Amino acid sequence: MRMQAVALFEQEVGPLEVAERLRVSRKSAYQWHGLWREGGPEALVSRGASGSRCRLSPRSLEKLAGFLEEGPAAHGWVEDQVWTAARVATLIGRKFHVSYSVSGATRLMHRLGFSPQMPARRTAERDEEAVTVWKEATWAEVKGLGRPAGATSASRTRQASPGGRPVDAPGAGAAAPRS
After folding, report:
1. Are 10 and 18 in contact (CB under 8 A)?
2. H-run or E-run covering 18
3. Angle in degrees, CA 107, 90, 63, rounded to 5
């Protein structure tokens, strides 16, 4: 996008027209124009992704992925099989002596293809038969039947007619019927 702006500036196209043509804000076009005037096309070359670099080496990232594959129990969290971002941040500190925030650990997990708060695999104690029975019996009872078809109506184009409301409904007597 910036290099397209450079080409237009070199053709003496003004920042307002550049903003319109490239569908960017006027502010951006004026900033780019100022940078281009002061430093030429090189001033608008991208410097890469912003933000801090990863504090773990590629080899350390591979090791971390291996640790995550082993599961939380292998690293001292035996109460459940869930990697939380806080646990991963603690694990990074223990294994690599590098401090990560919880949000930083979350981003790192996503980068490695993991998701916090989700079990890596089903627990060994899972009773598939009990789960199936619960789904068929208890869930059907809890879920209920729902609303019957046609019981409700929604329309953005017009309000329900006052004559269609029950007599005891809120606002039933508020509107006079149309003639």
Report:
1. no
2. helix 15-22
3. 70
Name the token pair of 157.
Answer: 């184009």
What is the pTM for the complete model shown?
Answer: 0.44
Amino acid letter at 85?
A
Longest dimension (CA), the chain: 81
**Residue 77, burial from CB neighbour count under 10 angstroms (0-12, 13-18, 19+):** middle
Beta-bridge partner residues of 119: 82
Q: Which of 50, 55, 53, 64 is nearest to 110 (CA)?
A: 64
pLDDT tens, the chain, 179 aa long: 888 999 999 999 999 999 999 999 999 999 999 999 999 999 988 877 677 788 999 999 999 999 999 989 999 988 888 888 999 999 999 999 999 999 999 999 988 888 876 554 556 677 788 888 878 877 777 776 666 655 555 555 655 555 555 666 565 555 555 55
Written as one letter, the residue type at 138 is: T
Cβ count within 10 A of residue 165? 15
Contact 49, 58 (CB under 8 A): no
At 119 the three-state DSSP class reads strand
